[in-house]
Design brief:
This protein is α/β, with parallel strands linked by helices. The protein has a single domain, classed as Aldolase class I (TIM Barrel, Alpha-Beta Barrel). It is 44% helix and 11% strand. The protein contains 11 helices and 8 strands. Strands 1-2-3-4-5-6-7-8 form an 8-stranded parallel beta barrel, surrounded by 4 helices. Helix 4 (124-138) links the parallel strand 4 (111-114) and strand 5. It is globular and about 50 Å long. The protein starts with 14 loop residues before the first strand and ends in a 20-residue tail after the last helix.
């Protein structure tokens, strides 16, 4: 029997969370069996949970029926391997977001992860209204705000504090755009909110950060977990070489494919996941560009030469399976 999933709260939300990639068929339809395997593959790796509904999972390219199938499969399979799951419900209006939240609740989501509506930039009062309305729809299920530049605006620490005080089920943020000074300011305004970064989480933990929502878990989840465990234990000097390797891999092997070849994050995430052994395919939803096997070989060759300690299969010596029991 899988471990019982603990309710996520401001106090216990922490660790390494991995984005789920959706495998598509050659007709741009969900491949359910491969997606089941993708979700289950994170069981036993030590990650603290998985999530859907961001750029990596191409939520923006999903119709309602596809979204519902993805959500149902993700919740079933994650829970079966003992992992909590956050379901993304980002949309362009409160009404549409609430429709997706209802789907997520029916499927058994442990939390709702959501960005602000982004076609028109929200004013402060609209931000507060949005969060209150989606929280009302979600009920007791907690909310994680995805604070991204794609939402066209940044929340000030004061506004974040107001929302945290007004909405008790708002428990954390996925925030990949704030520096350490801003992180500290946000935590002064909302001391118990769980603030997550991306692959830079090792820098944020000493400032009060709780962990990372990391795409590189797709390449080698155990290594990312190893870095988190060192940082969480305060062993920053020991963590430094591994953090440097992950940073090099990100900025020297992956980012150039965005800057030099025009691939979007979703394509690069697939490339590294396939290089890491995942059966998710390289195909992105049209009209966005997909990577190729050339890119996969390029990533592996770079890693062998420069950061061989990150190669798939090079995990921590004693990986602790986290999931719901952590």
């Amino acid at each position: 029997m899988p471990a019982k999933i603990k309710k996520l709260t401001r106090q216990n939300l922490h660790g390494v969370w991995s984005a789920l990639i959706v495998p598509w068929t050659d007709r741009d339809e969900l491949d359910p069996r491969r997606f089941e395997r993708e979700v289950r593959s994170y069981g036993g790796t030590g990650v603290h949970g998985v999530y859907t509904g961001g750029t990596t999972g191409e939520y923006y390219a999903q119709d309602d029926a596809t979204y519902e199938r993805i959500t149902r499969i993700a919740c079933e399979q994650a829970h079966d391997v003992g992992l909590p799951i956050q379901i993304g419900a980002t949309a362009l209006s409160t009404r549409t977001a609430n429709q997706r939240i209802r789907v997520a609740l029916k499927a058994g989501a442990d939390a709702i992860q959501i960005a602000l509506p982004f076609w028109l930039e929200l004013k402060d009062d609209e931000v507060k209204r949005f969060v209150k309305e989606i929280a009302a729809e979600a009920g007791a299920t907690p909310i994680i705000l995805y604070l991204t530049s794609r939402s066209k605006r940044k929340l000030t620490p004061a506004l974040l504090g107001e929302i945290a005080a007004a909405v008790p089920t708002f428990i954390g943020t996925k925030d990949t755009g704030s520096d350490l000074k801003q992180v500290r300011a946000m935590l002064r305004a909302a001391p118990d909110i769980a603030i997550f970064g991306g692959e830079d989480f090792h820098e944020r933990i000493p400032a009060g950060g709780r962990g990372g929502y990391c795409s590189i878990t797709g390449f080698n989840a155990r290594k990312v977990v190893e870095l988190y465990e060192l940082c969480a234990a305060g062993r920053m000097r020991e963590a430094a070489p591994l953090a440097a390797s992950i940073r090099r891999f990100l900025y020297e092997a992956l980012v150039p494919m965005v800057k030099d070849e025009g691939l979007w994050d979703s394509a690069v995430d697939r490339i590294q996941r396939v290089a890491g052994g995942g059966d998710v395919g390289l195909r992105c939803q049209s009209p966005y560009r997909s990577g190729s096997q050339r890119h996969v070989k390029q990533v592996l060759a770079w890693c062998r030469k420069n950061t061989p300690e990150l190669l798939p299969g090079q995990g921590s010596k004693n990986p602790a399976s986290r999931g719901a029991s952590s």
